[in-house]
Design goal:
47% helix, 259 residues, seven-stranded parallel sheet, 8 helices, Rossmann fold
């Protein structure tokens, strides 16, 4: 299937590792001109070099923090007219809501809701004028199946999904779609940190926590980042102009609901 991504400009946040890297990789393999953004230059440089070598086309990078106005401006200076925007940011480690201060909440909201919404604000009009746009937010399964220890993510990411539900219906007639990807447990550095924190809290060995979490999934394993990358490339493609405002679960069937 030709996804129609050749020459499309793509800006991928968190593109140096994990699911962001996988998304950048698949978009570049499909012919998009990709810029990856994150906070750490060393990991960005290594990722851009690896992606460029594998994909046979230059993948550029920009050091930028999605929670900061200056970071969002720097990202758009590096990719001024993106056809594809992938919003992706770190989450917070598990914890008890009694320990979260106002400052913690504001940091979480800036990271997982306000920053991505401002990125949409900055690019959506240009996408509509050009007649093509695909915005994909990497969110979390926790917006459908909340975990008490992930309350910061439950709250902030749910706010982002709620916002998208309204905006996505306004832009689709201009061939600009906005969708969310809701990953479950994936084999990433973020998942390793999550498991380490749960092991500390429970007093169980890290390997035991990991094995029990994998066994509990109907697929019997964690997801592979490239599986998310493939889904994002499809949602970014020319074939999804009639798909908008949706939240795509990708969790091995762990979510127990019918709807």
């Amino acid at each position: 299937m030709d996804l129609g991504l050749t020459g499309r400009a793509a800006l991928v946040w968190g593109g140096s590792k994990g699911m962001g890297y996988a998304a950048a990789r698949q978009l570049a393999l499909e012919g998009a001109e990709v810029v990856i953004a994150a906070r750490t230059e060393s990991s960005l440089q290594a990722a851009a070099q690896a992606l460029s070598a594998e994909c046979g086309r230059p993948v550029r990078y920009v050091v930028a923090d999605i929670t900061k106005k200056a970071g969002r401006e720097a990202a758009l200076a590096a990719c001024p007219q993106p056809d594809i925007l992938v919003n992706n940011s770190d989450g917070y480690p598990p914890g008890d809501f009694r320990d979260w201060t106002d400052e913690t909440w504001h940091e979480a909201l800036d990271m997982m809701m306000v920053g991505p919404i401002d990125m949409m604000r900055r690019v959506v009009d240009g996408m509509q004028q050009r007649g093509y746009g695909r915005i994909i937010n990497i969110v979390s399964r926790s917006v459908k199946a909340a975990h008490a220890e992930l309350g910061l993510s439950n709250g902030a990411r749910s706010g982002l999904v709620g916002f998208v539900a309204g905006l996505a219906r306004q832009t689709v007639r201009h061939n600009v779609t906005i969708n969310n990807v809701l990953p479950g447990a994936f084999d990433t550095d973020a998942q390793a940190r999550h498991i380490h924190k749960l092991a500390q809290q429970s007093g169980r060995p890290t390997d035991q926590v990991r094995q029990s979490r994998e066994a509990a999934n109907p697929a019997g394993r964690f997801g592979r980042p490239e599986e998310v990358g493939a889904l994002i490339a499809y949602l970014a493609s020319q074939h999804t102009g009639y798909v908008t405002g949706q939240s795509w679960l990708i969790d091995g069937g762990e979510y127990p609901g019918t709807y």
